[in-house]
Amino acid sequence: MGVRAFVIGGYVRDCFLGRAGNDIDIVVEGSGMELALAVGRKVHAKVSLFKNFGTAMLHFQGDEVEFVGARKESYRRESRKPIVEDGTLEEDQLRRDFTINAMAFSLQQENFGELVDPFGGIRDLADGIIRTPLDPDQTYSDDPLRMLRAIRFATKLSTPEIRFRIVPESLDSMRRMRGRLSILSKERIVDELDKMLLTDRPSLAFELMDRTGLLEEILPQLCALKGVETIEGKGHKENFSHTLAVLDNVCTFEREAGAEPNLWLRWAALLHDIGKPASKHFSPGTGWTFHGHEVIGAKMVPPLFKGLMMPLNEKMKYVQKLVRLHLRPIALVDEGVTDSAVRRLLFDAGDDIDDLMLLCKADITSKNPAKVQRIRANFDLVREKLVEVEAKDAIRNFKNPITGEYVMQVYGIPPCQEIGILKEYVKEAILDGKIGNNFEEADALMRKKAAEMGL
């Protein structure tokens, strides 16, 4: 077709990192859609056109291949939507976010596979550096989402062998440009947060957001956890660093268990202590307490999700539940593990009990390894008791053997307060272990209580 084409971006970067990838972006000096259609005819693949974006996509041998025409962009200050014009490969590379994402492989026959790297991306990749091709003030002002992307890449690409770092001038620019986040949709911001949370060590991302002031713009509730107050020589735990340690612990335990990353469990870990600033209290002789912070934190979850335009469905309720219950298993360690307390925990947690237990295990942090080991050993006793009681009493998916319909049928009464009283009385008796979780014992207890009530 007489056009030049190049593989560009993340696929090229990941080739040098030895990471497998199946998303291939091809930039064309000409019409990306026309080339995509021609390739589709050649390999007998269906081509999807996205005319509003000037892109096209096809699937081939397990790869997702996207075509786009080379572009140059300019921005208005009040919008992150660019004015796009046709451009050359060089102009297209110049508009890319970071040098490591601006590298390209030639697809021309005469130099197939040759690296086109005008900004030294291969050097930055080897050195573990995140740097913008242009002045960072321009890059981040044009599209503020790139500030979060820089942090996400620094987190995602870091390994035990090499920790990627954002160059100082770029970090300084983020501090100056943080107010530009206001022009972004909440959905775009949360998409980046979710991707950060799904990395192996998300604490790196939240530390960087804190250092640059971006976290204050997005999640001020987390920033409120920072710092240690001391009165009469007594200080409390630094709750921000503790929260990040818990978050990383959750990720580690998931990997050790061979489990897929659970995004909403990680959100619960991130938010589990957000009620502490509002509940912090100092008592002479006792020291610092945070009584009720789990209840306050659970109440904070819905407005926080709403403010970030996050789902307010079962996912939010799951996070809220784990925040509300995250102290309960640990409390059982301190108070002694009774069947009754375990039944109530199983009843309240339901099918989320395993996730709650993982979060609580992650919440055991201390600079004293012996103390952590001792508490986790006691915590394992709670876990064993959960298995024992669940096998015996089947409380996890508890359904009251006595229904409102059954009470109305037995006593010939319409819906009324007495029905709720009877159901609650039976439920409490089962959870306290006074009767078994079966219809026969529940029915007998209901009839006895109903007689006392004059039914």
Note down, in words, how this protein is organized.
The chain is α+β, with helices and mostly antiparallel strands and 455 residues long. It folds into 4 domains: 1-122, Beta Polymerase, domain 2 (2-Layer Sandwich); 128-218, Orthogonal Bundle (Hydrophobic Seed Protein), CATH 1.10.110; 238-393, no CATH class; 404-452, no CATH class. The protein contains 23 helices and 15 strands. The protein has helices at 10-17, 32-43, 89-94, 121-127, 136-142, 145-156, 168-177, 186-197, 203-212, 214-218, 220-223, 239-256, 263-271, 276-279, 293-307, 314-325, 328-335, 339-349, 353-362, 369-393, 404-411, 417-431, 439-452, and strands at residues 5-8, 23-28, 47-50, 55-60, 63-69, 71-75, 82-86, 104-106, 115-116, 129-130, 165-166, 230-231, 234-235, 281-283, 287-289. The strands form 5 sheets. It has a 7-stranded mixed β-sheet with strand order 3-4-5-2-1-8-9. A two-stranded antiparallel ribbon has the order 6-7. The model has no long low-confidence stretch (mean pLDDT 90).
Defining traits:
two-stranded antiparallel sheet; 455 residues; Beta Polymerase, domain 2; seven-stranded mixed sheet; 23 helices; 12% strand; 4 domains; elongated; Hydrophobic Seed Protein; alpha+beta
